[in-house]
Write a structure and sequence with these properties.
11 helices, about 375 residues, six-stranded parallel β-sheet, disordered N terminus, alpha/beta, Rossmann fold
Length: about 375
């Protein structure tokens, strides 16, 4: 039996959302909705190069947290190649039909960014839990609608921001939110992609088309680094000033941002799409110390320059995190709200770069806790 919430997106209350202790999860589900499966049934929408790199190995292994029930891609022949590795699920070439496949518990959406809003919304309206690759969508108003819809249903909606699943980033966030370095005063971030492997530079890729990707490097890898600043510190963005350079105003290869965060903290981010190697760094300063993240390393410096060691939690992945939220009600590591703040800040950054002036970041208009 399928529950459809098709009318819910037509209105959005300002206050009074139902509580969502674990970001929209409705508790235990019956795997496969009565289809006789011992794992939740998932449908896969979009099977491109990123899907194959990020998800195919786990989903095709015995340790997969999901049973793959349906696939969707416009290219049926290419889809058949993937289906062989996933146990021959049902194939669709139209995503609207795919969303109504009987027995699905969840969908993974790994499609061009401009399609995310309508695909995530339809999935939620069909009563499906959702894992969507970043970004949640391209417009802050639409992102807020999706956050509200997931909570109203209620359903799990997760945005796959990879840093959330890394053990040293989880440890860093725990230290910051527990007050180990005191009140946050400033943050600096740096992110670089290898120029010879960046899809932004590939003129044959949809990443090179701002109408589909939402922009250039800041709408792609840059959104990971920008969102990490908010997630690590627990501080939401208030305003941003951005300078961007690239072959067109919306297709940036380099971007520099200065942000005001909640509570008055200042953050800067430099994003580079033509670097010699992959790089990610964050320096987070507080009144009682600092926390330094360098690629896969974490260092904590307390008052007076004392270094502290921190035990690291086990790493996980986006699919396992989604399953734990659906089946066990575990809090998501990467929530719909996290996705909202990234969309709102990136949108404001592009507006700032176009105008040469700071821009306010659109704030959520309803309570989230």
């Amino acid at each position: 039996m399928r529950i459809v919430y098709g009318a819910l997106h037509n209105a959005m209350p300002v206050k009074g959302l139902p509580p969502a202790a674990h970001n929209g999860a409705s508790g235990l589900v019956r795997p496969g909705k009565g289809m006789g499966l011992d794992k939740p049934a998932i449908g896969l929408l979009g099977l491109g190069s990123y899907f194959r790199r990020a998800y195919l190995s786990l989903l095709s292994s015995p340790s997969s947290p999901f049973q793959v029930a349906a696939l969707c891609r416009r290219n049926r022949e290419a889809m058949k190649e993937v289906a062989v590795e996933l146990g021959q699920p049902v194939l669709y070439t139209r995503w609207q039909e795919f969303m109504t496949h009987p027995g699905l518990d969840a969908v993974l959406i790994s499609t061009p960014h401009h399609l995310h809003y309508q695909q995530v919304r339809m999935a939620l309206e069909q009563g499906l839990h959702v894992l969507v690759d970043k970004p949640l969508c391209l417009d802050a108003g639409e992102a807020e609608e999706l956050v509200w819809l997931a909570r109203r249903c209620p359903l799990v909606l997760s945005v796959a921001y990879n840093y959330h699943y890394w053990s040293h980033f989880q440890a860093a966030r725990k230290l910051i939110l527990s007050g180990n370095i005191g009140r946050i005063t400033s943050v600096t971030g740096l992110g670089a992609a290898r120029g010879d492997g960046s899809p932004i530079l590939d003129t044959d890729s949809w990443y090179h088309e701002p109408a589909q990707s939402g922009g250039g490097s800041m709408a792609s890898g840059g959104t990971h680094r920008l969102e990490a600043i908010f997630w690590l510190t627990g501080l939401q963005p208030r305003s941003v000033f951005a300078v961007m350079r690239g072959p067109s105003p919306r297709l940036d290869y380099q971007a520099g941002l200065v942000l005001e965060l909640a509570g008055g903290a200042v953050a800067t981010l430099l994003n580079e799409a033509q670097g010699p190697e992959w790089q990610v760094e964050f320096s987070i300063y507080g009144e009682g110390g600092a926390l330094l993240l360098r690629n896969r390393d974490l260092k904590v410096v307390g008052a007076g320059g004392r270094e502290a060691a921190e035990a690291l939690p086990a790493e996980t992945d986006a699919l396992s995190d989604l399953c734990a939220a659906i089946v066990g009600g575990k809090p998501l590591l990467a929530s719909a709200e996290d996705g909202y703040w990234a969309v709102a800040a990136v949108q404001a950054a592009y507006e700032s770069a176009a105008s040469g002036q700071p821009r306010a970041v659109r704030q959520l208009t309803f309570e989230t806790s």
